Every structure is written in C-alpha cells, then in structure tokens.
Amino acid sequence: MGLLFHIGRYFAFMAAALRRPQKGRVFAQSTLIELEAIGVQSLGIVALLSLFMGAVIAIQTAHQVGGWVPAYTIGFTVRQTMILEFAPTIIPVILSGKVGSNIASQIGTMQVTEQIDALEVMGVRSISHLVLPKLLAALVIFPFLVVIAMVLGIGAGAWICNAADLSSFADYEYGIQIDFKAFDVAYALIKTCVFALIIASVSAYHGYYTAGGAREVGRSSTKAVVYSVVLVMVANLVITQLLLT
Amino acid sequence: MIKVRGVDKAFGDKAVLHGIDATFEAGQVNFIIGRSGSGKSVLTKCIVGLLEVDAGDIKYAGEDFTALNTKEREPIRRQIGMLFQGGALFDSMTVLENVEFPLRMFADMDAEERQTRAMECLKRVELEGAEDRFPAEVSGGMQKRVALARAIVGRPHYLFCDEPNSGLDPQTAIVIDNLIRDLTHEYGTTTVVISHDMNSVIEIGDNIHFLHQGRVAWRGDRKGILSSGVEELDKFVYASDLMRDIKGKLQGR
Question: Residues 6 or more apart from B147 whose CB is under 8 A from it?
C-alpha cells in the first residue's frame, strides 16, 4: 500500500485516538498502568545505558585531552553529549525497541485474537481506549527518563574521572558548568516529547492494523520499531534545525 | 428484533453475501447454520457493524443500523452482548475483571454492585472460584464460559454467540445451551447463534436460517429442518453423526 494511504490512515487513527475518553476512571487507571509499563519498567535499562555511556564518553574525551586541550573539556563534553543527543535521542531510540515493540505486539495480539472486535461490539471506541493512555503515559514519562539519563550519565562521567584518575573533580565540575545554556535542556525535552509521541503512536498504529496471526504480529512489531526509529531521526534533524539554528 | 434486508457483501471481486434477508425475533433463539465458508461469520460481523455492508439494511427494533455513523451506533452497541468463537477475553485482566468490564464502561453501578452482578454471571456459567485467574490460566472451554458471562453481564437486548459450544465438553455444552435458551426467554433477548452443532440447533433453536453460498437457502423452525426439501441442508444435517439420534428425538416430539 502506498505511502499516502498510510499517512492518511495514520492521521485518521490519531484523530480517533485523541477523542475524549468514554469513562474517565477507566482511562485514568489505564494511564497509570501504562506509566508503570512504559516508565518504571524502562528505568533499569535507561539507568544502565546512561551510566555506561557517561563513563565511556568521559574516558574517550580524556583520551583526546592533552596539550592545549584543557581537562575541564571532559566534563563539558560529557554534559553536552548527554543533554543534547544521548539522553533525548538515543534513549528514545532504545526505548522504541523496548516500548514500541511492546505496544505494537500488545495491540496487534488484541487485534488478531478479536479482543478489539469485542471492544467495538460493546460500544467502546477501541482506538481511543487503547491508544490514548499509551500516548499520554509516553508523553509524561519519557521526559523523566531522559532527565534521569542526563543526570546519571554526567554523574557516571564524574565517577570514572575520579576512579580512573582522568581529571580532578574540580575540573570536571567546572566543565559541566561552563557555558551552560538552560535552553539546551529545554530543546532536549521538547524533542523528547515529540519522539515519545512518534514512538507510541507509530507503534500503536502498526499494532492496530495487524491482520493475520502470530507472524503478522511479529512483523508489525518489527515495522513499529523500524518506522519509529526512522521518524525519530527525521524529526531530530527537523527539530534541531528549527531550534538550534 | 433484528431485520436484515437485501444485504450484499463482497471482498474485492469475491462476493460473500448475496441479498440476504433474515428476521431474528426477540425472545427466540435464532440460529444461523451452514457449512464453513457459507458466509455465517461475515453476516454476523455485518449485523454487529464490524463489517460494513455493500448494499441492504439492518434494522435493530426498526432503527436502521447501517445508516448510522460510529457514534450514533454506540447506544445500540451497548445493548449487544457477543460471545466470540475464540472467547476474545482481555488477557491483561482477570476473569472477574473481564466480566465486569462492560459494567465498568457503561453501567451506573458502584464497585460492589458490579462485582455482585459479575459473580452472578460467573455462577450461571459454573465458574465460581475462577474469578481471580487470568484467561491464560484457564482452559479453552472455561474461557468460552467467561466470554459468555461477559456477554450477558449487561443484560443485553441482543445476544450474538459465535460457535458457543466449540471446544466444550458435551456436558458443559448442554449447560451453555440451556443458559442461552433461559436468558433468551427470561429477558426477551434477541439471540443469534452461529453454530455447526446440530444437537444445539435441535435442542434450543426456535428460528433457523441455513446459509449456502452466501444466500439464505432455507429458514424455518427446528421441526421443519428434516423435511426442508433443500438438498444442501439435508447433506449438512446428515453429515453430523449425532443426527441419527436427533432424528429419532425429533420424531418423538
């Protein structure tokens, strides 16, 4: 099917997803469940990756530092990398593999086992019922995860500098403070929110329009991750061009 | 009452339903029978609005369902209970939560009332004690019974059952048949059952539609089924081993 068909159907899907929930209490409960599934259950992987990435960036930068490059560059580079790119872009890309495939396979399985038909026959607006809590949960929890990633990455950089004697803590501390622009954090959070919406909605879209059986659920899950990552990269370029130039 | 008039449905070039006319009476167990691929499931999906018809109309108590948009259909849909062939239970919810779900969405009840009603329905399908288990933790037959409990918990005006007895042991099948019949008569429900199980048809069928190649080839009551004069229906009926016994049972009535 053509690209235009998918674009049109995606926007119709989003229009249906953003309709007012039929039952506030059920919606609130579903959103809490999704916050736990998307957020709390992703905390471990986000923390682990951020700690290692912060430490590795610090070591790599220290490897380059010498001669005319001041030692505080390590802290500066770790901070800029974590805030501008690793936390807001790479963490969502990693989460698209975890959260995106989970959303697509969950909704896809519901589709092929007639659970979505059961909702529709009852008079439940299935798209809104299933997708809106996931969108809201992703929108709320992704920025938190990204901020945690930033803090842990920068902290891990400080720890490795001290543990491996790469630079003094004072130099590192000076590096993470020098030329700090609060807008960089705002830029990171803005693009995180956009990526959260892309990942949750594209994954839900692929899951919802699954037809067939287990093999198609697997395919939808794969497509969800691939399209999410590609769209995140495109959106990253567009947002960066718009906000940083 | 549900009236279906002149319904056509095709998928691409393949026509599945041709000018279907059928009336499903309130307070009666209406059966749609036919061989695999005869269009039974497609017809049912058209009636409940999961598929759109290409031509014709479907009226619920005189209201043309096919002319309504999705939002306008919601009040009618809330009066529908449907038992899907595979159960279609929500696998992230327990048995009790599954049964309570329609009430949580649409009924003006507090948690205690909902639970009481759901437990009543679970009792009717003989599933007391299974309320805290997840669908994956119960057998296929039990899933079917949970699905029936969910379908009837809102006391629907219209009850659709797609192969309610498939995967059930004969004893449970009788329980389910009796339950469907009792609910239909008790609440005046318009019940539509899609089934291959001729034993069920003969036991509880009030009004039977036989579909062949996308057309209603015969309609009538259970007593007329053996003297229909329709060759395809005779073949369908006598394909069942049980029919030898059933024939004797009918002749005894």
Answer: B83, B84, B87, B88, B89, B98
Annotated domain spans of chain A = 23-244
CA distance, residue B232 to nearest chain A CA (Å): 31
Residue B21 has pLDDT above 80, yes or no: yes
Outline where chain A has alpha helix (H). 3-17, 24-34, 43-64, 73-81, 91-95, 101-112, 115-122, 126-163, 169-177, 182-208, 214-244
Domains and their CATH numbers in chain B: 1-79+188-253 (3.40.50.300)
| A122–B105 C-beta distance less than 8 A | yes
The per-residue pLDDT for B226 is 79
How close A119 comes to chain B (CA, Å)?
9
Q: Compare CB distances from B88 to A25, A26, A113 and report the shortest one's residue.
A: A113
pTM for the complete prediction? 0.88
Question: Which residue, among B26, B27, B76, has the nearest Cα to B47 in the 3D structure?
Answer: B76
A136-167 tens-digit pLDDT: 999 999 999 999 999 999 999 999 999 998 88
**Chain B partners of A122 at a C-beta cutoff of 8 Å?**
77-78, 80, 82, 101-102, 105-106
Per-residue pLDDT of B117-160, as tens digits, reads: 999 999 988 888 899 999 999 988 889 999 999 999 999 999 99
Cα–Cα distance measured from residue B91 to residue B88, given in angstroms and rounded to the nearest whole number:
8
Q: Tell me the C-alpha to C-alpha distance, in Å, between residue B38 and each of B14, B43, B234.
A: 13, 10, 15
Q: Which residues of B touch A22 (CB under 8 A)?
A: 105
ipTM exceeding the 0.90 mark: no
Which tokens sit at A23? Answer: 């039952």
Q: A169 to chain B, minimum CA–CA distance in Å?
A: 49
Average pLDDT, rounded, for chain A: 94
Strand order in the sheet with B29-34: B80-83, B158-162, B190-194, B29-34, B207-212, B215-220
